[in-house]
Amino acid sequence: MTEAGRDKTLKVFALLFGLLAISNFLKPFQLAGPEVGFVLFGTRLEGSANAIVGPAFGLYLAAYALALWRRLPAALPLALIYVAYVAANLVLFNMTPLADDSGLIFGLAYTAVAMGVSGGSAWLLWTGRPRSGQG
Q: For 48-62, how does the pLDDT look when each residue is reduced to its tens digit (9 = 90+)?
């Protein structure tokens, strides 16, 4: 991928993470219904835990989106931590009884998007980082 293509793709990912941050800030309001809550390590949170953790992850994702948009050095460690969290969260959530509610097709599509965007941005940052010994 060219550097221009990498930059455009990372900007799209930054916008997506920005939207996800907004979504997490809104989790405590349960605008889509009472069954909507932040999922932390496979557990859907409710009440005050949802009101605290959802916006806290919103702050993390907002910081990550900004670092990604500006191509700050902090973007790579934020990306690596986030992709590890997403993978763990997906595995743990699929081990809960709630996982059966959404259906196989939705679950596969959700997993593909979640891992594709979080993993894709981490991969682009990793492969685009300066290597030691380069000018």
A: 888 898 999 999 999
User: What six digits make up the tokens of 3?
Assistant: 């550097």
Residues facing residue 39 across a β-bridge: 44
Put residue 71 in one of left, alpha, beta given phi > 0 → left and psi -120 to 50 → alpha.
left
* pLDDT, tens digit (0-9, with 9 covering 90-100), for 101-116: 566 777 788 888 888 8
By the 10 Å C-beta count (0-12 exposed, 13-18 middle, 19+ buried), 33 is classed as exposed
Maximum CA pair distance of the chain?
A: 54
Phi/psi of residue 43, each to 5°?
-110, 125
Instruction: Transcribe 34-54 into DSSP letters.
Output: TT---EETTEE--HHHHHHHH
Domain ranges, ordered by start, for the chain:
3-128
Amino acid at 113: V
DSSP assignment letter at 104: H
- Strand pairing partners for 40? 43
Asked if 79 and 64 count as a contact pair (C-beta separation under 8 A), the reply is yes
CA atoms within 13 A on the CB side of 120: 19
